[in-house]
Amino acid sequence: MTFQSLVPNIAVPDVNQTVEYYSQILGFQVVNSIPASGKLAWAMLKVHSITIMFQEEKSFKEEYSSLHNLPIGGCLTLYVFVDNIRALYDNLKSKITLINELNITFYGMTEFAIEDCNGYILTFAQNEKQS
Predict the structure, then answer these.
(1) Are residues 66 and 79 in the same domain?
(2) What is the pTM of this model?
């Protein structure tokens, strides 16, 4: 047995709004969606080697009944390794809700964090010493 990849499936209130945010702000492309057009129930997006799925909250909670009474969001953050973090920061900072400014962490990574249109936190990171 070999693990091949990890693709998060994230509950959101509005898949269309999420697709628009991730496409226009972060450069993701839709690789699959249900239905193919109109009000989306689910979509898979990809940019470079990163793939994320977004599913409408109601159908997500129907599929995973143990999550029925839990709010979406919670304590989930997505940690995204990037190249040229300073250029990415400069490009995004006027378009997004910034949670943590560009900084060097106690563990040596250069990072900044944003909040997406659903309240999820994305931390962008680069080990500039290895670049």
Answers:
(1) no
(2) 0.90
